[in-house]
Amino acid sequence: MSAVAPPPPAVAVPERARVVPPRRRPRRRATAARRLLGALAVLVALVWVFPVYWMINSAFLPTNRLRTPEPSFLPFGGTLANFRRVLTDPSFYDAVKVSLAVTGLTLAAAILFAFVAALAISRFRFRGRKSFVVTVLVVQMIPAEGLFISQYQMLDTWQLVNSVLGLSIVYVAAVLPFTVWMLRGFVSGVPIELEEAAMMDGLSRTGAFFRITFPLLAPGLVASGVYGFLQAWNEYTLALVVMTDPAERTLPLWLQGLVEANRATDWGIVMAGAALITVPVIVFFLFVQRRMSSGLVAGAVKG
Amino acid sequence: MSAPPAPAATAPPPPRTSPPATGSTSAAPLRRRRRPLRSRLVPYLLLVPALVPLGVGLGYPLVRQFVFSFQEYGLAQQFGRPAEWVGLDNYVTLLSDPYVWGVIARSIAFCLVNAALTMALGIALAVLMTKVGRGARITLQVGMLLAWGTPVLATMTVWQWLFDSQYGVVNWVLAGPLGMEGQRGHSWLIEPLSFYAVATVIVVWMSVPFVVFTVYAGLLQVPEECMEAAQLDGASSWQRLWGLALPMIKPVLFVVALLQVIWDLRVFTQIHVLQRAGAPTRETHLLGTYIYSLSKEFSIAGAMATIMLVITLVLTTAYIRRMLREEEA
């Protein structure tokens, strides 16, 4: 359920105390209150970070230090053995391959299809446009949880269970509505006048689009690409239903298998596995978060 | 897979497309007539690539499931016997079973409690962000982003480890520093109520960051002049918040709250993984996991899924209406 978010724009909140200079004592009290609130914010941040920290901490600890009455809060004297064991396990690489294939296929199809659909609804007026927009909005709300058995049966009759293509089809359908909606915003954000001006200067309509509008849409394509990546890479429910063969597991299914095999005995290897699938995603997420934000804000402000 | 729309980022309305300039006015009448027709077809052609996967991946299964929910579809049909029409029998079977009502009631209760907690915490933290200094705010943002970016399955894995009965940190904290000796070796997932408590902690932990960032972005959009004017009129900062800022971002709050309700109603992964971690499944089923458990009885599962869809759509209509209104505006 990781969502592409509207942005936390890094605008400093002006200190209102400066606008109306208050008498001395209230101001001092205000700074004290502010400090107290600051401490509270940091405390909340720690609570939220703790599980992520704990995953990484435990991943570095040998089993005998995980199974002690007193937990070890710092990974001093830790070991890389857990990571080594995950990384020498062939099933990990099988899962990476399946995940890469499904994610790649889903992304390519979803971005391309969503892009042309977004063009249609933001650059053309035509009969049925509104019903398409309504469909996109309604479809977004259909819970996969209410459909997966039917989807499984359909893929089964087409012999697409346990296949990358089969899973990708249901993923594309799941990702498309939001991608269309998001790209629609970006396309509308580029003023049509730019294209018209280029057409006045002699470019064809298609030429104007590809030479003028398309480059301006790059941030939008990146943002929706990241959204699709996070969805397909992290998805569990449909993968669980469609990929029943252990040889065709995606990474989340692989991790769940690792948990079930080692829960009672060895949390270290489980945490190493979890950390290995988390760290790249978080790095990616943090890297693009700001860029996505600026794109979305730009789109929203121009109106 | 849930598709989270970004409510705060609704883009400006699409500019009206001016019809493509049709070359010279002296063109032959025939040519002039053909051209509009062709360009009228373009948008439909552009929609085809999106409509095909939607139809195949969602539309067809949806219709199929709906049809099957009025039929008797069991093992014999899997081997080729045509299915029999049974009318509303599957629905009657389900809705006359008190257990099913229990699942529905539990799901709705779980959904409302989680959505309310998430909203309350999210709004509180977003307001907190506007009140603290830069350093504290960035610390909080980074913490939230880390929690948000972690893949669901990794999250579930860590929380299982945190709530582990023997070596989990939660039991250690409760038994050691907090002195609740009874918590040593406590198994969290056996009792349905404590199972749901654990699930709630996890779901809220995962959902709060989205609310915080969206509401914070909304609060920043409140014009500075309004706040200053209110301050000059003597409104305390508490009054400015409750009387001015929050009402002004009501549309954002509305959409975010509705999304929370929808997401928490369809919760599956968290419940499923916790069940597999050793909870009694029958006592802990919510809508999603219950349908999953019915997968062998296809027509009953189809009827149950249809009921779930209806509940979701009823909850969603308000959201769709609002999005459409913004689209029109």
From TrEMBL, chain A:
Task: List where in the cell it is found.
Answer: Cell membrane
Does the entry feature the keyword Transmembrane helix, yes or no? yes
Its domain of life reads Bacteria
Q: Which GO terms describe its biological process?
A: transmembrane transport
From the record, give the transmembrane residue ranges.
36-56, 98-120, 132-152, 164-187, 208-230, 267-288
Q: Where does it sit, as one GO cellular component term? A: plasma membrane
InterPro entries, alphabetized: BP-dep_ABC_trans_perm, MetI-like, MetI-like_sf
What would be one Pfam family of this protein? BPD_transp_1
Domain ABC transmembrane type-1, by residue range, is: 96-288
Q: Does the keyword Transmembrane apply?
A: yes
Its keywords, alphabetically, are:
Cell membrane, Membrane, Transmembrane, Transmembrane helix, Transport
Q: Which family does it belong to?
A: Belongs to the binding-protein-dependent transport system permease family.
Identification of the protein by name:
Sugar ABC transporter permease
